């Protein structure tokens, strides 16, 4: 990223949607350096351009099953420093867990129908490019459902709420505002989550998110 200018590779097999996203992102100060309609095109574009972020749809030609997210996992393994934002209509918990297996920093997973404004999407791109984590709540829910639930089931309902908001990248202050409780109460819930998961707490929100998501990813069967 040069002077705040975000370089993006966009993988989307719908030409109409792809062209529209290129125009919208350009108007928001992002540069789409390449577009791809297939997974091999995506891999080639990332290798050539080394973008700040690759935006990836899950289902791409030829089989329209999981080519996109397979390519995202490959990019993650091959090309350090390239953020991955999965942008799809579908939640694929098993593949999401593989994508998160080596850490959640620089990973996003948003559902198309739940992004209400272009500004939300662009903000997510910047957060992922900066090494942050952006996950739709439904993705987190599916990850939690997919795992061996012993430790997750030890959480109280409020601790589970806090965990999901942590996974979305919210700070303690933001969680306190959303749940209408004190920041001190949130700190206690966060500490309880780490204790029950056997994770060491960290002062850095992104490291907290990374640790929690690593645990969730490891427990998805």
From TrEMBL:
<keyword id="KW-0805">Transcription regulation</keyword>
<feature type="modified residue" description="4-aspartylphosphate">
    <location>
        <position position="57"/>
    </location>
</feature>
<dbReference type="InterPro" id="IPR011006">
    <property type="entry name" value="CheY-like_superfamily"/>
</dbReference>
<dbReference type="InterPro" id="IPR058245">
    <property type="entry name" value="NreC/VraR/RcsB-like_REC"/>
</dbReference>
<keyword id="KW-0597">Phosphoprotein</keyword>
<keyword id="KW-0804">Transcription</keyword>
<dbReference type="InterPro" id="IPR036388">
    <property type="entry name" value="WH-like_DNA-bd_sf"/>
</dbReference>
<keyword id="KW-0238">DNA-binding</keyword>
<feature type="domain" description="Response regulatory">
    <location>
        <begin position="7"/>
        <end position="127"/>
    </location>
</feature>
<feature type="domain" description="HTH luxR-type">
    <location>
        <begin position="148"/>
        <end position="214"/>
    </location>
</feature>
<dbReference type="Pfam" id="PF00196">
    <property type="entry name" value="GerE"/>
</dbReference>
<dbReference type="Pfam" id="PF00072">
    <property type="entry name" value="Response_reg"/>
</dbReference>
<dbReference type="InterPro" id="IPR001789">
    <property type="entry name" value="Sig_transdc_resp-reg_receiver"/>
</dbReference>
<dbReference type="InterPro" id="IPR000792">
    <property type="entry name" value="Tscrpt_reg_LuxR_C"/>
</dbReference>
<protein>
    <submittedName>
        <fullName>Response regulator</fullName>
    </submittedName>
</protein>
<dbReference type="InterPro" id="IPR039420">
    <property type="entry name" value="WalR-like"/>
</dbReference>
């Amino acid at each position: 990223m040069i002077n705040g200018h975000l370089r993006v590779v966009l993988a989307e097999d719908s030409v109409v949607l792809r062209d529209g996203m290129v125009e919208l992102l350009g108007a928001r100060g992002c540069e789409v350096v390449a577009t791809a309609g297939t997974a091999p095109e995506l891999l080639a574009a990332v290798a050539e351009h080394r973008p700040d972020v690759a935006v990836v749809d899950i289902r791409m030609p030829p089989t329209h099953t999981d080519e996109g997210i397979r390519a995202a996992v490959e990019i993650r393994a091959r090309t350090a420093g390239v953020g991955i934002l999965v942008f799809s209509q579908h939640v694929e918990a098993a593949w999401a867990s593989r994508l998160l297996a080596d850490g959640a920093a620089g990973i996003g997973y948003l559902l198309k129908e739940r992004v209400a404004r272009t500004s939300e999407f662009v903000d997510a791109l910047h957060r992922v490019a900066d090494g942050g984590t952006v996950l739709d709540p439904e993705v987190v829910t599916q990850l939690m459902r997919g795992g061996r639930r012993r430790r997750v089931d030890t959480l109280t309902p409020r601790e589970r709420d806090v965990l999901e908001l942590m996974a979305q990248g919210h700070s303690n202050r933001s969680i306190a505002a959303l749940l209408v409780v004190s920041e001190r109460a949130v700190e206690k819930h966060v500490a309880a989550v780490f204790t029950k998961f056997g994770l060491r707490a960290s002062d850095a929100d992104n490291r907290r998110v990374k640790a929690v998501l690593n645990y969730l990813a490891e427990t998805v069967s």
